[in-house]
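Field log, afternoon session.

UNIT: design team B
ACTIVITY: writing a sequence onto a fixed backbone
BACKBONE:
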C-alpha cells in the first residue's frame, strides 16, 4: 500500500477593523453577510451555502469553478462544524475541503475578536493538514488573506 503524504502547517493573520466586536461577530454569524464575504466570488458559482451558527452546528459550502479559471467546471466542497463560540469574542471551526469528491485538507481555524481603541483586532489562526495533491499552506494563507479583505469590504457597507 502506497503511503500518502501530509503537510502540517500553522499560520496566523492579524487584521484590524474599524467596527465593534459585535459588528464583526455578526459578519460571521449572519448567513447572508457571511455568504457575501466567505462564499461568493467572481471565479465560481455557489451551488450550496448553509450555516447553523451554534456550537455543534455545521457549515457547508459547495461551489463550481467558472470557465476561464484554472479548474473550469470542477466542484469544491467545504464541510465543517463550529467547535466553540463565545459571542463577540471567539469562533473555532473544524473543516475539510474536497475537490471533485476527493478530500485534500483538514483545518482547525480560530477567530479571536479583541476590542481595540479603533474597533476590533481579529486574530485568525489556521492549523491545517494538507493531503496529497492539496493546495498547500501558502495558497491557503493567501486565500484567507483574500477572505479577510472581503470581510473588511462587507463591514464597510
Amino acid at each position: 500500500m502506497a503511503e500518502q503524504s501530509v503537510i502540517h502547517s500553522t499560520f496566523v493573520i492579524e487584521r484590524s477593523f474599524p467596527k465593534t466586536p459585535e459588528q464583526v461577530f455578526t459578519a460571521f454569524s449572519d448567513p447572508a453577510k457571511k455568504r457575501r464575504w466567505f462564499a461568493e466570488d467572481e471565479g465560481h458559482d455557489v451551488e450550496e451555502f448553509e450555516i447553523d451558527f451554534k456550537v455543534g452546528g455545521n457549515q457547508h459550502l459547495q461551489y463550481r469553478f467558472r470557465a476561464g479559471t484554472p479548474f473550469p467546471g470542477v466542484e469544491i466542497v467545504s464541510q465543517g462544524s463550529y467547535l466553540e463560540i463565545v459571542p463577540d469574542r471567539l469562533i473555532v471551526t473544524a473543516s475539510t475541503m474536497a475537490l471533485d469528491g476527493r478530500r485534500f485538507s483538514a483545518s482547525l481555524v480560530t477567530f479571536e475578536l479583541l476590542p481595540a481603541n479603533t474597533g476590533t483586532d481579529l486574530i485568525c489562526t489556521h492549523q491545517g493538514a494538507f493531503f496529497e495533491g492539496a493546495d498547500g499552506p501558502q495558497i491557503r494563507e493567501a486565500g484567507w488573506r483574500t477572505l479577510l479583505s472581503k470581510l473588511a469590504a462587507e463591514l464597510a457597507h
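LOG NOTE: The first helix runs from residue 21 to 29.
NEXT ACTIVITY: expression trials, pending approval
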